[in-house]
Amino acid sequence: MDKFRMMFQFLQSNQESFMNGICGIMALASAQLYSAFEFSCPCIPEYNYAYGIGLLVTPPIWFFLLGFVLNNNVSMLAEEWKRPTGKRVKDPTILRYMFVSITQRSLIAPMVWISVTLMDGKSFLCAFSVNLDIHQFGNSTLIDGMTEVEIVKLLAKIPCKNIFNQPEVISREAASRYIKCISQAFGWVFLLLMTLAAFMIRAIRPCFTQAAFLKTKYWSHYVDVERKLFDETCKEHAKTFAKVCIQQYFESISGDMRSFHKHRSSKDDSDDDDDDKKKSDEDKLLGIRDQDDMNKVLWNWHTCKPPLALRKEQLDGESHEGLIPNGDVHGVSGGPNGYANGHAPDLPKREWAAYYSKV
């Protein structure tokens, strides 16, 4: 279980690798599903085309929708698209980048299915056998004596080896090879076009719009990271909230849970530990200790997310907090260096060096 948990955490932390793995698994599954699929052409003129084209088109649509379902970024895209504007403007280019990225991954499995189907040629043979020119592969003497309906029925039976009963009229093997050859040609052309399209999207597009591409890629990653951190913060707060709530419940039911029969020193140690735990819990609660307050925080996060502009004074205060004692900027008596009237007593001098970075 620990190994599976570590693997799951690794996949969660590497979202792009996880989704690429899912796409690869779906592609292999589509090829394996086709190989395990039992192809049964109806060999009826009214149904051959619908069955062959349906087998070529319907499973790719299902794989495409399944790719959207399995992609975790779909919910993030919908949430970002439907959220109120509030203090943060929605950028259509970011939404478009996220949608294109999801669509590209979802198209892998359908492309594999269509390629394998065209390379095999069975569905193409079933769909277009009735459109074959029978005079190229048949006996013209026997064909001239057949009606149009009989010719169509005969051509519809070409994909079905077991029920084809007129080999003297048309060479079934030659007709099948001809249609499968055309199907494979379409398969290779399809692969070539998809590969060129992927190359254009992945390689050439960033060269013309590099700045816009980097901007949209950065902020799409930011939306993903922000959502994950918000979920982790909510989970940590909920865990701490439940822990404190349960502790207060038991304390109210059973009274004082501390033992007064222990030695004084052990009591002091336990009190210190309890104080540390309470401080830690208070830090994790972030000052939100009521259900209505938490509901308000969640509602405000949905309706009015904070603007993407960090407060510089807060960052400066955090960076200089460790350098100035007790957070007093002007010292105990208002002097610029922390001493009365700005004059320091005669103390041993020490050399200090402070380094600042604008990065």
Structural features, described:
Helices cover 68% and strands 0% of the residues. The relative contact order is 0.07. Mean pLDDT is 76; it is low at 260-268, 321-345 and 347-359. With 359 residues, it is an all-alpha fold.
Helix content: 55-70%
Q: Please give the count of helices.
A: 14
Main sheet makeup: none
C-alpha-based Rg, rounded: 36 Å
Shape: elongated
Mean pLDDT, to the nearest integer, reads: 76
| Beta-strand share of residues | under 5%
- Helix and strand sequence: HHHHHHHHHHHHHH
Low-confidence stretches: 260-268, 321-345, 347-359
Distance between the termini: 43 Å
What's the count of strands? 0
Classification by helices and strands: mainly alpha
Notable traits:
359 residues; mainly alpha; 68% helix; elongated; CALHM; ion channel
What topology emerges from the helices and strands here?
Blueprint lengths: L1 H12 L1 H22 L8 H26 L2 H10 L9 H15 L1 H13 L1 H7 L11 H5 L3 H9 L15 H37 L1 H45 L9 H22 L5 H13 L8 H9 L39
